[in-house]
Write a structure and sequence with these properties.
Layout (H helix, E strand, L loop, with lengths): L2 H4 L5 E2 L7 H15 L5 H14 L8 E2 L2 E4 L6 E11 L9 E10 L7 H12 L1 H9 L3 H12 L3
Parallel strand pairs: 1-4, 2-5, 3-5
Antiparallel strand pairs: 4-5
Helix pairs in contact: 2-3, 5-6
């Protein structure tokens, strides 16, 4: 499964305004709740904060993948956000995070997010993905970059 199969342009935040980890989680949760009626922002935010207490979802190369499972959805949901300034998200490599992939899976799913997480890992490793995303001017451009980069693997 590719990110572009579950991500639409309305679920992309081209210029995140948050400056804290909690703010990023709130911004991503708000975007998803605005676009997906089945998602309760407060419930989602609570689950994301609880998940982050187990360990940071900040990975390498400026990417973070906050994630959780929700009981009232039946399909995988993804939100992408970009912060040009970067945010201290407690990433494994100690660097600021610029690219945020919120991944929300149905509570009863088993392993449905593994292919998405693999795709995100490939994107995060791609220098051209990171460079082009930082240069993009709009959500439409970011979506096209994700789609184009996915074709490479």
């Amino acid at each position: 499964m590719k990110i572009s199969n579950v991500l639409n342009k309305h679920l992309i935040i081209a210029n995140m305004t948050s400056r804290t980890k909690k703010g990023v989680l709130e911004e991503l949760a708000s975007q998803l709740a605005q676009c997906e009626a089945r998602v309760n922002k407060e419930e989602l935010l609570k689950l994301l904060i609880e998940r982050e207490k187990l360990g940071s979802s900040g990975i390498l190369n400026g990417a973070a993948v906050p994630h959780c499972k929700l009981k009232n959805i039946d399909t995988l949901l993804v939100v992408f956000g970009r912060s040009r300034d970067g945010i201290d998200f407690g990433a494994l490599d100690g660097n600021l995070s610029h690219f945020f992939f919120l991944v929300v899976t149905p509570e009863i799913s088993i392993g449905s997010n593994l292919s998405i997480l693999s795709c995100i890992a490939h994107l995060a490793q791609s220098g051209s993905f990171r460079k082009h995303c930082m240069e993009a001017k709009s959500a439409n451009e970011l979506y096209q970059i994700i789609k184009d980069e996915e074709q490479k693997f």
